[in-house]
Amino acid sequence: MAKQRNLVRTLGLGYVVIFVVANIIGSGVYKKIAPMAAELHSSVWILMAWIVGGIITLFGALSNAEVAGLLADTGGDFVYFKKIYNRFFAFLYGWSLFTVIQTATISSLAYVFAQSLNSIIPLPEMFSSLKDLTIGGVFYPFQDFGVKLTAILLILLLTSLNISGLKSGAGASRAILLLVFTGLAVIVFFGLSSSVARPANFMDVGDLTRGTVTLSSFYTAMLAAFWAYQGWVSVGFIGGEVKDPNKNIPKGIVMGVFVVIFIYLLVNVTYLTLLSIPQLEQIHAAGNQIAAVEAVRSFWGSGGVLFISLLILVTTLGCTNASILTGARPYYAMARDRLFFPNIGKLNNANVPGNSLLWQGLWASVLVLSGTFDQLTDMIIFAVFIFYGATSLGVFILRRKMPDVHRPYKVWGYPFVPAIFILFCIGLFFNTIVTRPREAAIGMILILSGIPVFFYLQRKYSKKD
């Protein structure tokens, strides 16, 4: 009988931080300030939404870090949920990752990559006669098909790269992230020092009285902020390939999230000094414009548009790559635990889960055809915060179940920090149902579709025993 392959621990703390940051910084830092402006109509409220979103994300990361430090292994929260709750809930999480959370993240990032490429090199129109063809009045698979096909080709290309080996994907993430940091630093420095910068745009306290900002609209605006912060939990998926994971994963999560919060505040302050709220609202209304592109255009003209378009291209390339690399590991862990289809639990000759990567890439490609960028991201945030809240609740459960076990990291501010995060997740869940019912409904359908699959797998494996 052939010897079973196992994952190899090759990644240190530096790579963990790189994966945290690379999984977070994607399209949101360039696009999401415009829908936030349309929702809040105030620069002060927008900055508050970024700050609160960052603090809430940090609370979730701190809570997750305690659980990760205790239970770190390949599969991340899938492994944690098995220990905290049961195999059924762990499966639903893994199934949700596959059907919507991780795969739609990959699809959204690849779509923005293709949009940016289209702004540099116009992509050919394809199947334009079918652009109004709709599925249920919700999905338009042939709309902007040239852009969508490019996104699909990117997903398949990066999937092939990661199938060739872990170091190939990790090295690409590190190189791309360095380019992204450099590009964002250039925007901040030249943007804030340019003659068109208007600090009053974001320092005007009078903005607070413009429009009506409710708790519901603030929550809705933070859907955009949370998409920009989304991805930090993915580093837990590669726990089986991290050296000393019980220490390095919690440290890496906290360090990475702090870095991202700092970068986001700097970049968004820059946008708000260059663009007024009415300008940002117009960008959102246009539908095909990107706030970062218009901000750089304001002080560098057409040359700046090329620069920022290339930067968005590189950033979304890096985040798509990181999401593909980390995302396939939970399905591999599920299959090894007889909670997914058996072939997905096999490693290839490069010691990576090649089948898992392949199926993830194929489904992500299908999702590219399903919807618009904002539709996909709102659906992701609704679904993922259900499970973020469940992980934070796990801090309380594990402290009760395993009080004497050594914890390499204990969440700061316990019990208030995890409790605040849980309450916030509950509020976001119900607010999204009210303000984004279509996205919430699609997200719930995809999550609950895993129930019959779970019982099918249970029967299938029980017959083999």
Molecular structure report:
By secondary structure, the protein is mainly α. It has one domain: Amino acid/polyamine transporter I, CATH 1.20.1740.10. The chain is 73% helix and 0% strand. It is built from 18 helices and no strands. Helix 15 packs antiparallel against helix 16. It is globular, with a radius of gyration of 21 Å. It starts with 12 loop residues before the first helix and ends with a helix.
Feature tags:
mainly alpha; Amino acid/polyamine transporter I; 18 helices; single chain
Task: Give the topology, please.
Elements: H1 13-24, H2 28-31, H3 33-40, H4 43-71, H5 77-84, H6 87-120, H7 145-163, H8 166-193, H9 200-203, H10 215-229, H11 245-274, H12 277-286, H13 291-336, H14 354-368, H15 373-401, H16 416-435, H17 437-448, H18 450-464
Task: Write a brief caption for the model.
The protein is mainly α. It has helices at 13-24, 28-31, 33-40, 43-71, 77-84, 87-120, 145-163, 166-193, 200-203, 215-229, 245-274, 277-286, 291-336, 354-368, 373-401, 416-435, 437-448, 450-464. The chain has 18 helices and no strands.
Per DSSP, what share of the residues sits in E-state strands of 2 or more residues?
under 5%
Total count of helical runs of at least 4 residues? 18
User: Would you identify the CATH architecture?
Assistant: Up-down Bundle
Characterize the main sheet.
none
Broad shape: globular
What is the name of the CATH class? Mainly Alpha
| Strand count | 0
